[in-house]
């Protein structure tokens, strides 16, 4: 406790501390010398490949995987090609990038998962260097080939290779390079001598870091910060330039006085810190450079590797695992020698209290007088979060709790959640688990991801404990863990299907949000179809079951599940699958038993496969639909004979369907078509395709009255309609003579008001008046008004003594109307009203 | 931009914002400049979610309409197809992609609206282009906020698909949309429904809820009740001519995606000395929603009450302008000036609506309109519904628009619970001979949908339904309504009556009638997580979401809004539907080869 500051070193305004995380549990003969090394960020696993450059082609190097504390997780002989680079994905899978561009993916237990290639072009040209990087889009890989071209994949789970443009004048390997993620895009930054270039998808841009020391002739090393916001460059003159990665601002430049190119360089800046700082490593020493001229130097006895983290750098050597970071503000405030910060005083007060000394009161009073007790408590809580040693954490938390007693209304959340977080962190930092997360990292990575990490390590009980302890909602926490457990369980080949299915069912039961279909898929992938089917039965989401059922060739079941889900797209999918799988007869039979699928398939055929549609109707003896089908087809047919042929088929079907009406009218249609053609041939009028009404109108319009008359009789057009039609047609033609003849031919079945109105509509009031007298008494008023004869209307209305009609006439009167007429109407209305 | 969405009882802007966020996220996935190739059908609905400015902010430089051939040249990095999952569209996209100039390094993306489709992806794969797409994504746009109390899926074909083609895709989307709604506004504790489709949707919702298991939303429920209504429970209402202001605008000019296009003559500014030259020829496009204060006030009034409302408003506005003479001090003048923009907006809004009202009045006072309405009302009151109607015959003889005829014949059939075979055949023959035999397919469709049917029993139960539900009110008060029947000047929409009775006194009182209407009626309850049970304040209204499966008319919406505003109703309504429709657009959606028809 007294030595909290023992490992602190000042650098400018800040302090840096190096804390030991673990004494490594591994037993490496030659330390880290001569091996490929990769450690995943956020305290992830470590992979080692010894002697990657084989002495003989038949030599099989050893691949080893360890936890951060050096506990062995897997080891196996490497039998594939020459590995250029190792790396870890965000989901803790190991990536082995080979010289020929093949990337092999293993899980952390050394089980092979898959492989992919970085492009065919690489096979010839070979990978010279490769880097694995992380971005919001996932894990990416960048390689540089023998022709000094870069290829980049931003997300290996959704592999899209981008070959970046050529760098002009680049004749050899760049002296150093790095991947940046900027503006939602991954780019490569590379140095060739003193020149810097940024390569994005389309262009190569030369850039210059502002204020780079002019003594430099070459940039020999570069490092991008964890957040991609900052960039550090190391030059052959021994200068470290630090700035923003967009190369707009320079933050600092330090002369290290060491000209040898460093082995590794990494950013060591904690989020929100004012201090830019990088850690640079050479064979024998480690140097921390910041904003000031001085630097911190540590000697190194052993080959080490730097692992950049969000808030510091981990240093792994053959024997030890350490964390180097800027001392967090809260810790500095409390533990700095002679600090008078409220947190420091509170800690002191609590110490005195434990000693049962009255000094406790003095300290407390001092804080309270400045009303800083709240701040003091917060400082202690925050500092506890940043401490690695549980005893120090406890001391600080006790002090906070002590201070809290003297405060009313201090919100408890911060204290409670810090206690919870620390409990979780201490559990995962344990040697046996070996995830040395800091509190800052934990908050950044979220509980969900931590749970995932534990699950990847198959630490199911711990993961579930944590979920329950943190009260994570079931479907985000326990359910997910159980699902992973089950996926792992189904791979245990030695156990029988029943046993596993039962075990899974017992443990998972009704836990909300379990995806049984994922588990079943896993089982199927392991070749356990029967088990998969058993497991699928537990899946509540019918839609989810479909793809797997199809894969397992249980198509009938898939179809009914798809229908059950209500998702028509899924039904379509199964149907189109069935169509390819089955012979036509069986396929139709299957559909017949599933009306929903059948009608969807009909829809599909209607737009895509007309002939199949016909077959479907045929099979079902659906004559009505067949009739409709032929009618529809007839309209697509241009040749008249074919059209009539199709209509004949329709007629036959309609008769079979006992739909006499449709059959009759379709026959009528055929008859009309024939007549139209005949008339076309004889008279040269375009008629085919017209409706009966339009045919008649056209005939009357050109004066073919006899032919029209014939059609009217043949097609038994009702008199009323024919009269309307002829009336309209003649008026349109303005054949008033013929119209008059027609009007007198016999008594009009539609009365004579239409005659009046149609004439008026064609602006011929003179003709209209001829018919007014013939109009029935009830319609007289309307007729008079239509021709604008107000007086006549008035007479008619008064004669009929209809109040409503008199009012109508009155409403048409204007100030210019004859006074006497208006009065007469008013009088008549009064009398009519009395009745 | 969309403030009017948040003024209502339920803040529908949350839904719109969620949709916008998702759109932005997708656009950002495609880094660099982009061009959008639109499935033309989607542009309207998208306009309700995002204007061009939003797209522009996310580097959308160009927009094209999806058509065969190649995508027009544009100097962009990404080409994004916004499409519905339709096979015929996939073929066009494939053609677009295959004919792309190989020199150009444009990346392709597809955004499926409202849902990704395996079938479509399969088609793209068969065409050999599936691998050409960098991103294939879905944009879940089921329910689009249309106004402060109105959601629409804007799916024109929903009714046809459900009732004619037995394709329940739109119902699946409905259920999904309701799940999204519940995720944002809390689980709806009570579900009522009437009709086959309603039953199907409710079943899917309950199933989906089970499937989601523990991931239930922990939000205090905003809606108390969901009422699902099949359109075919009430086939009558959409056939009738709507008589509210908004309803008439829709009947006469058609409102699409919240916009109406009007003849321009009435809207040109008349300036002296300019008489007659350069009259605008482009139709005047106006947006209609509750963001416009005056429109919100008059949209749901019976048209006969609109004139009075407009003149009242005119007086208020001119009085407000007169105020300037009273403004003496600098402070008063300043205050007057600060109100000026608002007043000017009000004045121009008044001018617009006065013009629209004049346009409508020319039509509503015509004989044609009057005669048509008279026949409709005769049918609705049950006068001579069993005989061939002379007015319909005359209209056919004069070859009036076919849809008008179909609306009337269907209405007669619905009001008579089917027509006598002889009457039906007569009408059909008249129609086929006049308008062409091809319409036999349309007539078959109408029969399938139940709009036209031969009488099977001699018993006509429409009068019973009309009497029990009081569908006809003799003394409808158009100026100061006291009943929903004002929206059709006498006829109270059946669908809305069902909602009204459900709220009070409950459906148990009309069991008999419910049995006469097609499809099952049901009630379901959804368990709420403990602690989310609402404690109702005294006098606090219940909120009911009424979902019309297969479409709703503006008049029905007006009637529900009227119920919300009734002082003692105790229920406020939010309306959702697959599509806003009127008799004309509805019948048109059921026609075969409708493109030949006007």
TrEMBL record, chain A:
GO molecular function, one term: actin binding
Membrane topology according to the record: Peripheral membrane protein
Record's keyword terms, sorted: Endosome, Lysosome, Membrane, Protein transport, Transport
Protein's UniProt keywords contain RNA-binding: no
Domain of life of the organism encoding this protein: Eukaryota
Its biological purpose: Plays a role in vesicle-mediated protein trafficking to lysosomal compartments including the endocytic membrane transport and autophagic pathways. Believed to act as a core component of the putative HOPS and CORVET endosomal tethering complexes.
Subunit text: Core component of at least two putative endosomal tethering complexes, the homotypic fusion and vacuole protein sorting (HOPS) complex and the class C core vacuole/endosome tethering (CORVET) complex. Their common core is composed of the class C Vps proteins VPS11, VPS16, VPS18 and VPS33A, which in HOPS further associates with VPS39 and VPS41 and in CORVET with VPS8 and TGFBRAP1. Interacts with RAB5C. Interacts with STX17, MON1B. Associates with adapter protein complex 3 (AP-3) and clathrin:AP-3 complexes.
PANTHER family on file: VACUOLAR PROTEIN SORTING VPS16, VACUOLAR PROTEIN SORTING-ASSOCIATED PROTEIN 16 HOMOLOG
Protein name: Vacuolar protein sorting-associated protein 16 homolog
Organism per entry: Chanos chanos (Milkfish)
Gene name in the database record: vps16
Automatic annotation (TrEMBL), chain B:
Keywords: Cytoplasmic vesicle, Endosome, Lysosome, Membrane, Protein transport, Transport
Topological relation to the membrane, as annotated: Peripheral membrane protein
Source taxon at top rank: Eukaryota
Presence of keyword Membrane: yes
GO biological process per UniProt: protein transport; vesicle-mediated transport
Subcellular location: Cytoplasmic vesicle, Autophagosome; Cytoplasmic vesicle, Clathrin-coated vesicle; Early endosome; Late endosome membrane
GO cellular component: autophagosome; clathrin-coated vesicle; early endosome; late endosome membrane; lysosomal membrane
Keyword Protein transport among record annotations: yes
Function (record text): Plays a role in vesicle-mediated protein trafficking to lysosomal compartments including the endocytic membrane transport and autophagic pathways. Believed to act as a core component of the putative HOPS and CORVET endosomal tethering complexes which are proposed to be involved in the Rab5-to-Rab7 endosome conversion probably implicating MON1A/B, and via binding SNAREs and SNARE complexes to mediate tethering and docking events during SNARE-mediated membrane fusion.
Family assignment from sequence similarity: Belongs to the STXBP/unc-18/SEC1 family.
Stated name of the protein: Vacuolar protein sorting-associated protein 33A
Organism (species): Chanos chanos
Lineage: Eukaryota, Metazoa, Chordata, Craniata, Vertebrata
Gene name of this polypeptide: vps33a
């Amino acid at each position: 406790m007294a030595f909290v500051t023992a490992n602190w070193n000042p650098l400018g305004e800040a302090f840096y501390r190096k804390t030991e995380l673990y004494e490594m549990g591994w037993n490496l003969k030659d330390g880290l010398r001569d091996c490929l090394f990769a450690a995943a960020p956020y305290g992830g696993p470590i992979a080692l490949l010894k002697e990657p450059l084989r002495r003989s082609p038949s030599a099989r190097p050893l691949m080893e995987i360890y936890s951060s504390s050096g506990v062995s997780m897997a080891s196996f002989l490497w039998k594939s090609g020459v590995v250029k680079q190792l790396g870890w994905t965000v989901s803790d899978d190991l990536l082995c990038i080979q010289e020929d561009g093949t990337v092999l993916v293993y899980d952390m237990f050394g089980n092979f998962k898959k492989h992919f290639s970085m492009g065919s072009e690489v096979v010839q040209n070979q990978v010279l260097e490769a880097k694995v990087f992380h971005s919001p889009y996932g894990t990416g890989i960048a390689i540089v080939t023998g022709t000094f071209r870069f290829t980049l994949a931003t997300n290996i789970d959704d592999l899209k290779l981008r070959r970046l443009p050529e760098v002009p004048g680049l004749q050899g390997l760049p002296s150093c390079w790095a991947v940046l993620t900027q503006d939602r895009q991954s780019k490569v930054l590379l140095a060739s001598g003193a020149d810097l270039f940024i390569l994005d998808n389309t262009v190569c841009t030369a850039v210059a870091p502002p204020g780079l020391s002019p003594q430099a002739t070459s940039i020999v090393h570069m490092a991008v910060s964890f957040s991609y916001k900052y960039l550090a460059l190391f030059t052959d003159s021994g200068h470290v330039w630090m700035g923003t990665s967009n190369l707009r601002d320079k933050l600092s430049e330090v002369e290290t006085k060491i000209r040898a190119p460093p082995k590794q360089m990494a950013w060591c800046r904690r989020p929100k810190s004012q201090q830019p700082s990088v850690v640079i490593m050479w064979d024998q020493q480690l140097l921390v450079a910041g904003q000031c001229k001085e630097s911190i130097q540590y000697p190194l006895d052993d080959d080490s590797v730097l692992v950049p983290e969000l808030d510091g750098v981990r240093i792994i050597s053959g024997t030890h695992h350490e964390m180097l970071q800027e001392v967090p503000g809260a810790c500095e405030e409390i533990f700095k020698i002679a600090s008078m910060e409220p947190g420091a005083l509170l800690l002191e007060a609590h110490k005195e209290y434990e000693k049962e000394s009255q000094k406790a009161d003095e300290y407390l009073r001092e804080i309270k007088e400045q009303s800083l007790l709240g701040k003091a408590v917060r400082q202690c809580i925050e500092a506890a979060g940043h401490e690695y040693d549980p005893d120090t954490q406890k001391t600080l938390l006790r002090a906070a709790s002590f201070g809290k007693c003297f405060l009313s209304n201090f919100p408890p959340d911060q204290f409670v959640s810090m206690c919870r977080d620390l409990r979780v962190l201490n559990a995962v930092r344990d040697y046996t688990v070996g995830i040395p997360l800091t509190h800052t990292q934990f908050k950044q990575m979220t509980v969900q991801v931590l749970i995932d990490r534990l699950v990847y390590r198959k630490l199911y009980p711990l993961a579930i404990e944590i979920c329950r302890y943190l009260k994570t909602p079931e479907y985000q926490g326990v359910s997910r863990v159980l699902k992973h457990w089950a996926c792992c369980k189904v791979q245990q080949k030695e156990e029988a299907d029943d046993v596993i299915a039962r075990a899974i069912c017992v443990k998972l039961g009704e836990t909300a949000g379990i995806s049984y279909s994922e588990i079943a898929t896993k089982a199927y992938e392991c070749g356990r179809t029967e088990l998969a089917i058993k497991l699928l039965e537990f899946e509540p989401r019918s839609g989810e079951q479909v793809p797997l059922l199809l894969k397992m060739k249980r198509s009938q079941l898939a179809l009914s599940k798809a229908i059950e889900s209500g998702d028509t797209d899924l039904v379509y999918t199964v149907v189109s699958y069935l169509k390819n799988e089955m012979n036509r007869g069986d396929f139709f039979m299957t559909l017949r038993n599933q009306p929903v699928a059948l009608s969807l398939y009909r829809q599909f055929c209607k737009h895509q496969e007309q002939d199949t549609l016909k077959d479907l109707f045929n099979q079902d003896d659906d004559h009505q639909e067949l009739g409709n089908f032929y009618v529809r087809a007839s309209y697509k047919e241009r040749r008249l004979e074919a059209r009539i042929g199709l209509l004949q088929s329709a007629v036959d079907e309609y008769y079979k369907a006992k739909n006499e009406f449709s059959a009759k009218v379709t026959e009528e249609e055929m008859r009309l078509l024939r007549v139209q053609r005949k008339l076309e041939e004889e008279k040269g009028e375009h008629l085919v395709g017209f409706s009966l009404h339009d045919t008649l109108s056209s005939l009357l319009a050109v004066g073919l009255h006899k032919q029209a008359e014939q059609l009217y009789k043949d097609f038994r057009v009702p008199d009323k309609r024919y009269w309307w039609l002829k009336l309209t047609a003649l008026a349109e033609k303005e054949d008033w003579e013929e119209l008059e003849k027609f009007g007198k031919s016999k008594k009009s079945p539609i009365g004579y008001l239409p005659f009046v109105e149609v004439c008026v509509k064609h602006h011929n009031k003179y003709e209209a008046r001829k018919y007014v007298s013939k109009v029935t008494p009830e319609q007289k008023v309307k007729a008079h008004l239509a021709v604008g004869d107000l007086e006549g209307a008035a007479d008619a209305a008064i004669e009929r003594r209809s109040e409503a009609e008199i009012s109508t006439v009155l409403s048409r009167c204007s100030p210019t109307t004859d006074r006497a007429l208006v009065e007469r109407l008013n009088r008549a209305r009064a009398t009519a009203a009395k009745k | 931009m969309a403030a009017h969405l948040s003024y209502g009882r339920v803040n529908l802007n949350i839904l719109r914002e969620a949709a916008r966020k998702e759109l932005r996220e997708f656009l950002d996935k495609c880094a660099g400049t982009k061009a959008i190739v639109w499935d033309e059908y989607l542009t309207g609905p998208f306009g309700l979610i995002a204007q061009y400015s939003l797209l522009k902010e996310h580097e959308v430089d160009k927009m094209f309409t999806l058509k065969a051939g190649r995508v027009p040249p544009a100097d962009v990095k990404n080409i994004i197809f916004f499409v519905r999952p339709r096979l015929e569209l996939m073929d066009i996209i494939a053609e677009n992609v295959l004919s792309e100039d190989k020199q150009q390094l444009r990346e392709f993306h597809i955004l499926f609206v409202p849902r990704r489709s395996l079938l479509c992806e399969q088609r793209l794969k068969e065409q050999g282009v599936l691998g050409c797409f960098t991103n294939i994504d879905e944009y879940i746009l089921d329910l689009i906020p249309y106004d402060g109390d109105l959601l629409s899926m804007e799916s024109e074909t929903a009714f046809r698909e459900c009732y004619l083609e037995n394709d329940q895709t739109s119902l699946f989307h409905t259920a999904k949309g309701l799940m999204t709604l519940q995720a944002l506004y809390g689980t709806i504790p009570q579900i009522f429904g009437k009709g086959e489709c309603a039953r199907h949707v409710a079943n899917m919702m309950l199933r989906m809820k089970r499937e989601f298991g523990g991931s239930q939303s922990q939000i205090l429920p905003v809606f108390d009740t969901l009422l699902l209504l099949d359109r075919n429970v009430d086939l009558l209402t959409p056939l009738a001519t709507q008589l509210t202001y908004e309803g008439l605008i829709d009947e006469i000019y058609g409102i699409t995606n919240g916009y109406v296009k009007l003849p321009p003559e009435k809207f040109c500014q008349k300036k002296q000395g300019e008489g007659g030259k350069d009259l605008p020829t482009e139709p005047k496009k106006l947006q209609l929603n509750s963001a416009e204060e005056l429109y919100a006030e008059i949209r749901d009034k019976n048209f006969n009450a609109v004139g009075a409302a407009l003149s009242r408003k005119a007086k208020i506005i001119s009085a407000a302008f007169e105020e300037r003479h009273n403004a003496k001090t600098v402070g008063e003048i300043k205050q007057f000036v600060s109100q000026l923009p608002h007043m000017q907006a009000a004045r121009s809004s008044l001018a617009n609506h006065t013009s629209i009202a004049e346009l409508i009045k020319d039509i509503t006072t015509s004989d044609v309109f009057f005669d048509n309405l008279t026949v409709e009302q005769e049918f609705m009151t049950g006068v001579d519904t069993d005989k061939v109607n002379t007015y319909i015959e005359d209209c056919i003889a004069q070859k009036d628009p076919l849809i008008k005829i179909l609306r009337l014949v269907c209405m007669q059939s619905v009001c008579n619970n089917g027509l006598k075979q002889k009457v039906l055949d007569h009408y059909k023959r008249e129609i086929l001979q006049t308008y062409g035999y091809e319409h036999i397919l349309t007539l078959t469709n109408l029969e399938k949908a139940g709009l036209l049917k031969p009488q099977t029993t001699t018993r006509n139960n429409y009068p019973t339904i009309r009497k029990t539900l009081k569908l006809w009110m003799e003394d409808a008060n158009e100026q100061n309504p006291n009943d929903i029947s004002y929206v059709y000047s006498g006829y109270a929409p059946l669908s809305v009556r069902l909602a009204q009775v459900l709220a009070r006194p409950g459906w148990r009182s009309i069991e008999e009638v419910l049995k006469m209407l097609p499809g099952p009626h049901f009630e379901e309850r959804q368990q709420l997580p403990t602690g989310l049970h609402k404690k109702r304040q005294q006098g606090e209204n219940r909120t009911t979401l009424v979902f019309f499966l297969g479409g709703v008319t503006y008049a029905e919406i007006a009637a529900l809004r009227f119920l919300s505003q009734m002082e003692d109703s105790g229920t406020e309504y939010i309306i959702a539907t697959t599509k806003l429709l009127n008799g004309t657009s509805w019948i048109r959606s059921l026609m075969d080869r409708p493109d030949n028809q006007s």
